[in-house]
Automatic annotation (TrEMBL):
GO molecular function list: glycogen phosphorylase activity; pyridoxal phosphate binding
Alphabetical list of NCBIfam families matching this protein: P_ylase
Top-level taxon of the source organism: Bacteria
Functional note: Phosphorylase is an important allosteric enzyme in carbohydrate metabolism. Enzymes from different sources differ in their regulatory mechanisms and in their natural substrates. However, all known phosphorylases share catalytic and structural properties. Allosteric enzyme that catalyzes the rate-limiting step in glycogen catabolism, the phosphorolytic cleavage of glycogen to produce glucose-1-phosphate, and plays a central role in maintaining cellular and organismal glucose homeostasis.
Database matches in CDD domains: GT35_Glycogen_Phosphorylase
Reaction it catalyzes: [(1->4)-alpha-D-glucosyl](n) + phosphate = [(1->4)-alpha-D-glucosyl](n-1) + alpha-D-glucose 1-phosphate
Membrane-crossing segments per the record: none
Designated name of the protein: Alpha-1,4 glucan phosphorylase
GO cellular component: cytoplasm
Residues forming coiled coils: none
A Pfam entry, by short name: Phosphorylase
Keywords: Carbohydrate metabolism, Glycogen metabolism, Glycosyltransferase, Pyridoxal phosphate, Transferase
Family designation: Belongs to the glycogen phosphorylase family.
Gene (UniProt): glgP
Length: 828
């Protein structure tokens, strides 16, 4: 494939840098009208909100484009080692607000729209966010590319352009019903397709031997079908720095050769079917988080985007005469979980079969080009692909994996002679009835570094999940605690707090978040505290107007806003929170607690359940039933309210998080790898009630015990209880408050007695994540929350200190740590 222009430009202006339109209101108005008239083909007075949105997005994009071209030119002129971030998911959130903020166009656009009589808020609301991820892992990737652009680090994010992102959640009589996410339907103004850089991706077929140079025996893949990976580029603007990096998302199309061949046989219908088959690969995001389904199409997606990305980098980005022996000096591919790990045998295959290298040289290169981030501790979340499936879909890759494994196990045997059990445990191939490829082992063997996403998580990876590997290669293991971008999750999401902070300490914190420390003295200032509360109130009002527009119930004023937003999963223990709500209600019903003693609270849930995860869906159904009973029971005197707005996504997170008072981070210790919502909430001045899990540990250490409500078993206690034998039924029987709450649910008080009994039966009988064991500690901690909330000044002081001490959780800091600990690393 040609990598440069075929004809050198001859025009005298051809090598001039692209110039963005002038940054003034008149020019912007003109550019916008031009986009509206000539891009959308409508006059202003006949334009719809969608026309206006598309024209505005295109106008803003043209301002960014000059930065993007200049960044690329600069990077070509001064090549530096680059990060290739490989992630099957990017949960980007809306683009318009972010583009305006980072390119410093907000003021101009507000005035331009005002002059044109256009409602900017309505135009912004028109954007459907690209939901190309499930939850934390996908959002983390989006925060990381934002930070890298802001830090002017050379990075290309590679991923999949799913035609349908994470489903839209609706509730029908309290039950989750999934609706396809047609995010592309009304236009996709932020992307540009680049068909000339399409990459063919092969599948299937067989492997054959042949005689290579000097008669050396070599292997080559004879695939029997293929698809075309067509790149769509997105610009990733840095904050106020003129940088725009690239996010390249691949879309699957039928290759011309493929359908022509069939078409020539006269079977038109079959040719079209082939096209549909190809397009299937990037059709839909798998909505399973933490529980991979092991579906063939999923492995196709993984190989599809990774092969396209590595091919694009090697054969499209690097100069044609590049000496591949120096590849590790030019690129580090960061593997966002195991989803892109098939890239390891793919790079081996390219070096061996296409570039003719010998094994040792190919491995020396490959084993310096990848680093692996693990995002889980749940054994069921670790991907294992059936050998038979990999063999069928990617036969040459399967051979290479076997060979990597043989050589690796030989090294293990050499180091631990006679320790067959260790060899079995460490093998990349899980033996037994269904042989499987353990993708985490493959990643760990090949990577320069393996990292967990919070200190506790990285420790548990070393001590438990990958303990044998950590003994073999202690220096390979490291930690990088996650972070979140302060641009989207504070500046953009929370203007009232942002201007309060700016008034106090200036704006330097936006790219240097540790400077929020300078706010600490303001916690003692009553005037500042009152301003802080008024910013919270403004955010609550704003949230209410959003909920109103969505047709969701309004939140009562003057309630504590108690927020639990994250995917619905048993280990995260939404059920524990629900039990606390029901026990408060039951206390009032039974007269144990006078209603006037209940702290006025709104408990807000936001959570999607994987469509195939029955228990999670039943939990959603129960929360909604509890909400409808509690919210309409006059005995509570309006003091307890449960809200569950549907379709929690990045857009809603940006509204919700700034309004929150209390952040629920109540996973069973040792199960939540890190969490990042916990960071966003603390940064926006919510106090955390949480277990000693994931990044909660670090949040508590930084904000201080007085400003954090810790409860529950620690991880070692959980492990101890597990090994001793956990009997939830005994906890249930011995705690009358807990028993009454569970009994009230099981009695059918909240409707659907059958469903209620089944869920409660499972809880009392199994309780896989020990909600009952932590119930009393949780209730006690909530009593402390109530007591503190009653002291408004003390609460506000703690909230301000949470903001001031959360600077560490910027994803800019995470990126610095990756640069220092992983991407600079030249080991072996
Ligand atoms: C999350 N993982 C962790 N997985 O649960 C969370 N899984 O603790 C952590 O903060 C976050 O990653 C970022 O490190 C996920 O979000 C998935 O979404 C996922 C998706 C597909 C398959 C498996």
């Amino acid at each position: 494939r040609a990598t440069g222009p075929q004809f050198p430009p001859t025009h005298h202006l051809a090598d001039q840098p692209a110039v963005a339109p002038a940054r003034d209101v008149d020019t912007f108005v003109q550019e916008f009208l031009e986009e509206l008239n000539f891009g959308q083909g409508v006059p202003l007075d006949r334009s719809t909100i969608n026309h206006q949105y598309l024209a505005l997005a295109s106008t803003v994009r043209s301002y960014l484009m000059a930065d993007w071209l200049a960044t690329a030119a600069r990077r070509r002129a001064h090549p530096a080692k680059m990060v290739g971030y490989l992630s099957a998911e990017y949960l980007l959130g809306r683009q318009l607000g972010n583009a305006l903020l980072n390119s410093d166009l907000e003021g101009i656009v507000e005035e331009a729209m005002r002059q044109l009589g256009i409602d900017l808020a309505a135009v912004r609301a028109q954007e459907v966010e690209p939901g190309l991820g499930n939850g934390g892992l996908g959002r983390l990737a989006a925060c990381f590319v934002d930070s890298l652009a802001t830090m002017d680090v050379s990075c290309i994010g590679y991923g999949i352009r799913y035609e349908y992102g994470i489903f839209r959640q609706t509730f029908v009589e309290g039950r989750q019903v999934e609706v396809p996410d047609t995010w592309l339907a009304l236009g996709a103004p932020w992307e540009f397709r680049n068909p000339e850089r399409a990459v063919q991706v092969d599948f299937g077929g067989s492997v054959e031997s042949y005689a290579g140079d000097q008669g050396r025996p070599r292997r080559r893949w004879r695939p029997d079908w293929n698809v075309l990976a067509v790149p769509y580029n997105y610009m990733v603007p840095g904050y106020h720095n003129g940088v725009a990096n690239t996010l390249r998302l691949w879309s699957a199309e039928a290759t011309r050769a493929f359908d022509l061949q069939i078409f020539n046989h006269g079977d038109y219908a079959e040719a079209v079917r082939a096209q549909t088959f190809a397009e299937n690969i990037s059709k839909v995001l798998y909505p399973e988080d933490s529980t991979p389904q092991g579906k063939e199409l999923r492995l196709q997606q993984q190989y599809f985007f990774v092969a396209a990305s590595i091919g694009d980098y090697l054969h499209g980005t690097l100069p044609e005469d590049f000496d591949l022996a120096r590849l590790p000096e030019q690129i580090i591919f960061q593997l966002n979980d195991t989803h892109p790990v098939i890239g390891i045998p793919e790079l081996m295959r390219l070096l061996l079969d296409v570039h003719g290298m010998e094994w040792d040289q190919a491995w020396a290169i490959t084993s310096r080009c990848f680093a692996y981030t693990c995002h889980t501790l749940l054994p069921e979340a670790l991907e294992v692909w059936p050998v038979s499936l990999v063999e069928r879909l990617l036969p040459r890759h399967m051979e290479i994996i076997f060979e990597i494994n043989d050589r690796f196990l030989a090294a293990v045997r050499a180091q631990f002679p006679g320790d067959d059990d260790r060899v079995r445990r460490m093998s990349i191939i899980a033996e037994g009835g269904d042989r499987g490829v353990r993708m985490a082992h493959l990643a760990t063997v090949a990577a320069v570094r393996v990292n967990g996403v919070a200190e506790l998580h990285s420790q548990l990876l070393r001590d438990k999940v990958l303990v044998d590997f950590a003994q073999l290669w202690p220096e390979k293991f490291t930690n990088v605690t996650n972070g979140v971008t302060p641009r989207r999750f504070l500046v953009s999401a929370n203007p009232p707090l942002t201007s309060l902070i700016n008034d106090a300490i200036g704006g330097g914190w936006i790219t240097d978040l540790e400077r929020l420390r300078e706010l600490e003295p303001y916690a003692e200032d009553p005037v500042f505290r009152e301003r802080f509360r008024s910013a919270k109130r403004a955010n609550k009002d704003h949230l209410n107007s959003t909920l109103l527009a969505a047709g969701t119930a309004q939140l009562p004023a003057d309630h504590m806003l108690d927020v639990m937003v994250k995917r619905l999963h048993e280990y995260k223990r939404q059920m524990l929170k629900l039990l606390h709500i029901v026990s408060t209600y039951e206390g009032v019903l039974s007269g144990r607690v006078p209603a006037e003693q209940v702290t006025p609270r709104t408990c807000l849930f936001g959570a999607k359940a994987a469509p195939g995860y029955a228990t999670a869906k039943e939990t959603i159904y129960l929360i909604n039933r509890v909400a409808s009973v509690i919210n309409s029971d006059p005995k509570l005197d309006g003091r307890l309210f449960v809200a569950f707005p549907p379709n929690y996504n990045v857009t809603l997170a940006q509204r919700l998080i700034p309004a929150a008072d209390l952040s629920e981070q109540i996973s069973l210790a040792g199960k939540e790898a890190s969490g990042t919502g916990n960071m966003k909430l603390a940064l926006n001045g919510a106090l955390t009630i949480g277990t000693d899990d994931g990044a909660n540990v670090e949040i508590r250490k930084l904000v201080g015990d007085d400003n954090f409500f810790l409860f529950g078993m620690r991880e070692p206690e959980v492990a101890e209880l597990q090994s001793r034998g956990y009997h939830p039924g005994e906890v249930y029987a011995s705690n009358p408050v807990l028993k009454s709450a569970i009994d009230l649910i099981a009695s059918g008080h909240f409707g659907d007695r059958g469903a209620s009994q089944a869920l409660m039966g499972d809880l009392v009988g199994n309780d896989r994540f020990m909600a009952l064991a932590d119930f009393q500690a949780y209730v006690d901690a909530q009593a402390q929350v109530d007591a503190k909330f009653a002291d408004t000044e003390a609460w506000t002081r703690s909230a301000i200190l949470n903001v001031a001490r959360s600077g560490y959780f910027s994803s800019d800091r995470s990126m610095r740590d990756y640069l220092d600990r992983i991407w600079g690393a030249q080991v072996h």
